[in-house]
């Protein structure tokens, strides 16, 4: 690998540098995953992705990832920080995935220095599973029920219901102790003219995403903000997706 450090450029600058590939990628990092998940419908494999943290110069994804069916995952072709990259740190995202997508559960480490010891990734959260209604069926009694067991509990659940264009039509931010979402009762709008008549209960299949998330230490649900409903703010999250219909 070749790296040129501390290169500054202004807008529209075009710079040329001769790079020498003198950084061997001959090291391996080993990781331990806790609370990995497996189900016939997914997740069906475990994976770790590594990012190289060069501080203010940026964070770059390693081109190599590690996969395993067990809870120990090794990622090869890594540099050993020395010389020009002596200050290099690593960040790892590890979890249980379905091929490259959902259902999934993943967690990230804080930046850490190179080590030959086994690196523990924070515990994974269980994937939320829809309990009621049945997949593709209408919601019963205005309640969407799901489960996301322990032993590691989330700080919050975030549910998003989208139409066939991918546009969110309903969203719920729920405490991690509440595995259900309520749909309010609406009055009868049929007396209103069609051009101004609201339609909060869309007909037909809708796409439901269910997310369980662990945020930052000291999280208080009663003070939640939209900044905390963002995977950049989550140290771990799990995701499942399905279809339902509104009542």
Task: Count the E strands.
Answer: 14
Strand arrangement, major sheet? 3-2-5-6-14-13-10-11
The averaged pLDDT comes out at 90
Name the structural class.
mainly beta
Sequence of secondary-structure elements:
EEEEEEEEEEEEEE
Report the span from N to C terminus.
Answer: 57 Å
Report helical residue fraction.
under 10%
Task: Profile the largest sheet.
Answer: 8 strands, antiparallel
Low-confidence stretches: none
What share of residues are in beta strands? Answer: 35-45%
Helical element count? Answer: 0
Shape: elongated
Radius of gyration: 23 Å
What would you say this structure looks like, in words?
The protein is mainly β. It is 0% helix and 39% strand. It has no helices and 14 strands. It has strands spanning 27-32, 45-53, 59-68, 72-78, 89-98, 101-108, 119-120, 129-132, 143-147, 156-162, 168-175, 180-182, 206-214, 236-244. Strands 3-2-5-6-14-13-10-11 form an eight-stranded antiparallel sheet, with no helix packed on it. Strands 4-1-7 form a three-stranded mixed sheet, with no helix packed on it. The model has no long low-confidence stretch (mean pLDDT 90).
């Amino acid at each position: 690998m070749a790296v040129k450090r501390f290169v500054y450029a202004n807008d529209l600058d075009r710079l040329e540098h001769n790079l020498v590939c003198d950084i061997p990628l001959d090291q391996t990092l080993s990781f331990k995953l806790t609370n990995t998940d497996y189900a016939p419908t997914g997740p069906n494999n475990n994976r770790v992705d590594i990012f190289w943290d060069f501080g203010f110069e940026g964070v770059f994804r390693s081109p190599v990832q590690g996969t395993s069916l067990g809870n120990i995952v090794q990622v090869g072709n890594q540099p050993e920080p020395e010389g020009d990259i002596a200050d290099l740190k690593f960040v790892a995202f590890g979890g249980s995935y379905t091929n490259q997508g959902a259902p999934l559960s993943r967690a990230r480490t804080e930046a850490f220095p190179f080590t030959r010891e086994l690196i523990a990734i924070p515990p994974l959260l269980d994937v939320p599973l829809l309990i009621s209604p049945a997949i593709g069926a209408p919601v019963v009694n205005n309640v969407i029920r799901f489960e996301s067991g322990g032993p590691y509990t989330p700080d919050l659940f975030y549910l998003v219901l989208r139409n066939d264009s991918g546009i969110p039509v309903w969203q719920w931010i729920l405490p991690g102790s509440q595995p259900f979402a309520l749909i309010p009762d609406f009055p009868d709008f049929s007396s209103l003219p069609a051009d101004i008549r609201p339609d909060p209960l869309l007909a037909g299949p809708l796409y439901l995403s269910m997310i369980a998330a662990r945020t930052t230490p000291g999280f208080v649900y009663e003070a939640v903000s939209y900044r905390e409903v963002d995977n950049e703010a989550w140290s771990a999250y799990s995701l499942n997706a399905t279809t339902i219909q509104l009542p």
